[in-house]
UniProtKB/TrEMBL annotation:
The keyword Membrane applies. The keyword Kinase does not apply. The lineage of its organism: Eukaryota, Metazoa, Ecdysozoa, Arthropoda, Hexapoda. It comes from the Eukaryota. It is a multi-pass membrane protein. This is Uncharacterized protein C6orf105. The chain crosses the membrane at residues 20-46, 67-90, 110-127, 139-158, 170-194. PANTHER family: ANDROGEN-INDUCED PROTEIN 1-RELATED, AT02829P-RELATED. Belongs to the AIG1 family. GO terms for cellular component: endomembrane system; membrane.
Amino acid sequence: MFFALQGDIMKDPEIETFAALQWAYITIWNVIFQLAYPCLGILCDLPTILEIKEHVLIKQLKTYREIIFASIILPVGIFITFVFWPIYLYDRELIFPAFIDKVLSQGSNHVMHTAIFLIIAWEFIFLPKSAPESHKVNLAHIFGCYLSYLIVLFSTHYRIGAWPYPLLKLALGTIFFPMIFIGVGVLIHLIYFAQWPINKLIWKTKEVVKEN
């Protein structure tokens, strides 16, 4: 996509606006998360790969890897997959207008909106995790990320005068506009908490008392 946004195609007003809005797409944020997380995983696995003693820093990184996966990677990735496709299939112009096909193939579309679910499922199933005694740190990561995204989203709209998703333009000025953002926050919150009973079912782990 980044290579496609070069040359004469940038003379297209729709593509020019799309390029200016790209950092306001939550999918682009998720791509960065999905690329950074495996790098963190490789660092955590280096002692095993190199057969060396595990440094205390690696132990801390492993702890943080669990936090990042539970609070960012899983909730955001699952949210994107299960919200994007129903809206796309109903009316793609609400979330992913057809003009984007000029710079983003359907294959790339599936990489960003379908494959992420399979990758998350693989990690969730094969890497054991335990529920934290307190969810405060994880929730701080979730809503810190969401707040950061909202700041970028609204500041981008202020600068450019456009929304990345046409659905927001249609909802602007109605009760549905704030309800969209409230609904997103609630759904991500539910996805986060849903992972623990599923994790327990997979690994038959003993439930840890949670401090909400």
